[in-house]
Amino acid sequence: MEDIYFDSADGKTKIHACIWRPEGKPRGVVQIVHGMCEYAKRYAPTAEFLAENGYLVGADDHLGHGESAPSPEDLGYFCEKDPAGTVLKDLRTMAMKLREEEPYAPMFMLGHSMGSFFARKYMSLYGTELAGAVIVGTGYQSPFMTGAGMALTKLTQAFRGKRYRSKFIDNMAFGSYNKRFRPERTSKDWLSENTENVDAYVADPLCGFTFTCNGFLALFSIVAEACKKETFLSAPVSLPIYIASGRDDPVGNYGKGAKKVYGMYDEAGVEDLGMTIYPGRHEILNESVGVQVRDDILEFFDSHLGTPAYNGEEGVK
């Protein structure tokens, strides 16, 4: 694995990213988009598995996450203006850096949780440049729910500031997630049946922090954008999409939200669309079923390597 850095679109932050290279010439390229309150290196097992199977893999730490946060106080704070849009621009920069290494290999995107919502928006903007996309741990929220979250956050921010960390908003957003898994062992039991994975997450200072008001506005904004009908309709109908979700994942409303997303892409006319609801909770890549999930993702990528390669310059295939 190699650490790299690039300038964020916010004009002041250095974004940290990781690249995993295969032996020999890559068969394809995969950009991983991580979730909320975590970071790129948590995907090392998946990235290493893909690299062992011939893929060049890259993932950046979003603004306010991992090594892209200048200090612990910056965890969960994105940037002053347009935080969700700035993260999308940084994802675009990361994609172009991977393209610099492999201009012609088929390129795929894999987004998890919050990263799945960013990936869905990215697909609507740049989907013609992808050979396929995998969205893991995704879900669907109504405009009413995201609107209420944004309104409450804006009100709180007006009184307390952009960097204020509201336990009330955090509880509103995630407080119900553990209800199905009582008696609670930790506050993050909903993440995984794998207790070692949960304990590592809870003990990691770069995981599980409370978002600032600024961070929550970015989260609610990208979820709202990803769930708009126009976003589904803007994804190319020729873009192969695979949805993977845990049967007991509260983010995906225990399978219902993932099925809703599948239905929206189906209604939008996406021609190559697949979905699997796996046993497990939110982080299915870190569950015992994770081996099967990775195998299925690899099979999806391998089966779409024949997609004409993007030329890296003209924006066409």
Separation, N- and C-terminal Cα atoms: 29 Å
Rg over alpha carbons: 18 Å
Helix content: 25-40%
The arrangement of helices and strands along the chain is: EEEHEHEHEHHHHHEHEH
Q: How many β-strand runs? A: 8
The dominant shape is globular
Derived from helix and strand composition plus strand pairing, the structural class reads alpha/beta
Residue stretches low in confidence (pLDDT < 50, at least 5 long) are 309-317
Strand order of the largest sheet: 1-2-4-3-5-6-7-8
The DSSP helix count reads: 10
Percent strand: 15-25%
Topology (elements, then pairings):
Elements: E1 2-7, E2 14-20, E3 28-33, H1 44-52, E4 55-60, H2 83-101, E5 107-112, H3 114-126, E6 132-136, H4 143-160, H5 167-174, H6 195-203, H7 213-226, H8 229-234, E7 241-246, H9 256-267, E8 273-278, H10 290-303
Parallel strand pairs: 3-4, 3-5, 5-6, 6-7, 7-8
Antiparallel strand pairs: 1-2, 2-4
Helix pairs in contact: 3-7, 4-7
Please tell me about this protein's structure:
The protein has 317 residues and is α/β, with parallel strands linked by helices. The chain contains ten helices and eight strands. An eight-stranded mixed sheet has the order 1-2-4-3-5-6-7-8, with helices on both faces. Helix 3 (114-126) packs across helix 7 and helix 4 runs antiparallel to helix 7 (213-226). The longest helix has 19 residues, at 83-101.
Features:
10 helices, disordered C terminus, alpha/beta
Can you give me a brief rundown of this structure?
By secondary structure, this protein is α/β, with parallel strands linked by helices. The protein is built from ten helices and eight strands. Strand 5 (107-112), helix 3 and strand 6 form a beta-alpha-beta unit.
